[in-house]
């Protein structure tokens, strides 16, 4: 009789896994290279944390911190500007083992909002701190404030000015520049976590809070099902609680990919929302899906780096190999 691998063994072979995204929308071909390089570096770094025995929370925070520090993304340095030309950022983390979560919203002058969100989770009895209260908490925790200018790129200022124009459509324009960042991970024990960070929507009203810091909207993680980090039009994501909807479909037995596709289709049908998601389950199944034209993503599993940009695109290369792709797999993931 042929030997059949046990589900436990199959799961062990697929773990750990880490998937990151660098925003959904569409970008001009000439800008693809830095977006792609950034998510690949972040996926490698987060995966290395898992391989060295770090926790899933350590891994997703590491990956998202790197993306916040990279000025090409709309998070940390590089954030889009609000209607007054200021930077207000949102971030969320969630631990699937305990369902602990932490978030900050409309926070200013912080280089790494994802790390502050983690501190909210670990050091307070609350789930989310906002605006000035979040800044006071940061000071109390010894988190150094930075000059707002250091978070603003020339590109962000240029786009802000363009969108002050009365005929501009900031939502449409947002979809022309990707950049919210996020990560999900599962370790060899089947623990899952998520982290998401953003500067929000271009030229948003001061004080606007989007999906990112809201649990179930900006991410969700539960060891019993999986973890999700989304990106896209926050108001649409919130209306259908996209990450929690995906996990609901997974609870009903759907794969990470099928659940993502079904939830994205539902969001489009109900509220015409465009978004993308990265998803893991505790057995190592994963997905990177979008209903926008593009979402920049990268995943690391079994010492292979996967990545893609156009919807349905999927390249892979050995993690130890050269940085330039040496294998191409155009199959739908
Ligand atoms: N979801 C983010 C927000 O609405 C933006 C994005 O992902 O591009 O704040």
Automatic annotation (TrEMBL):
The active site is at 180 (nucleophile). GO terms for biological process: L-asparagine catabolic process via L-aspartate; proteolysis. GO terms for molecular function: asparaginase activity; beta-aspartyl-peptidase activity. InterPro entries: ASRGL1_meta, Ntn_hydrolases_N, Peptidase_T2. PANTHER family: ISOASPARTYL PEPTIDASE_L-ASPARAGINASE (PTHR10188:SF41), L-ASPARAGINASE (PTHR10188). Residues 1-25 form the signal peptide. Belongs to the Ntn-hydrolase family. This is Isoaspartyl peptidase/L-asparaginase. It is an enzyme of class 3 (hydrolase). It holds the Pfam family Asparaginase_2. It comes from the Eukaryota. Its EC number is 3.4.19.5, 3.5.1.1. It catalyses: Cleavage of a beta-linked Asp residue from the N-terminus of a polypeptide; L-asparagine + H2O = L-aspartate + NH4(+). Keywords: Autocatalytic cleavage, Hydrolase, Protease, Signal. Substrate binds at residues 208-211, 231-234. The record marks 179-180 as: Cleavage. The keyword Nucleotide-binding does not apply. GO terms for cellular component: cytoplasm. The lineage of its organism: Eukaryota, Metazoa, Chordata, Craniata, Vertebrata.
